[in-house]
Specification:
The chain is α+β, with helices and mostly antiparallel strands. The protein contains 3 helices and 6 strands. It has one domain. The relative contact order is 0.18.
C-alpha cells in the first residue's frame, strides 16, 4: 500500500550497552494487514554483532508498537532483514519477505 524511507531521527531505536547507540530502519512498508520495518544488509554482514544487536532492538520495538496498536485498532508491526543479493529491480515485496534473513535465529545467538 505505502512505503517510505524514514528521515533522520524519525525512528529512535536504541541498542547496545545501556542503549548507547541509535538505530534507524532503511524502510517502513505498510501492507493491508501489517507494517514492516525493513533493513537491507550486505549478506556478508548478516552474522555481525552489530546487525544482530540492531535486529534484536528492532524486534523489541515492533513487539511494543504491535501491543499498543492492537489495543487501539492499529496494525501489527514486523521486522525484516533482506540480504542485498535478494534485491533486484524486479523483486516484489512479497518475494523479499519470503526470502528475508531469519531474524529469530540471529537474536537467539545473542544469548
Amino acid at each position: 500500500m505505502k512505503w517510505m524511507r524514514p528521515s533522520p531521527k524519525q525512528f529512535n531505536i536504541y541498542y547496545g550497552p545501556g542503549g548507547q547507540y541509535r538505530y534507524e530502519p532503511d524502510f517502513v512498508v505498510e501492507t493491508a494487514d501489517m507494517i514492516y520495518l525493513v533493513e537491507t544488509k550486505a549478506s556478508r554482514d548478516l552474522d555481525s554483532a552489530a546487525v544482530k544487536d540492531k535486529a534484536h532492538a528492532a524486534e523489541e520495538y515492533c513487539r511494543a508498537v504491535t501491543a499498543w496498536n492492537l489495543e487501539h485498532g492499529g496494525k501489527p508491526w514486523s521486522y525484516a532483514i533482506v540480504a542485498h543479493n535478494e534485491v533486484r529491480l524486479s523483486s516484489s515485496f512479497k518475494y523479499l519477505m519470503s526470502n528475508q534473513a531469519v531474524v529469530h535465529q540471529m537474536a537467539m545467538e545473542l544469548k
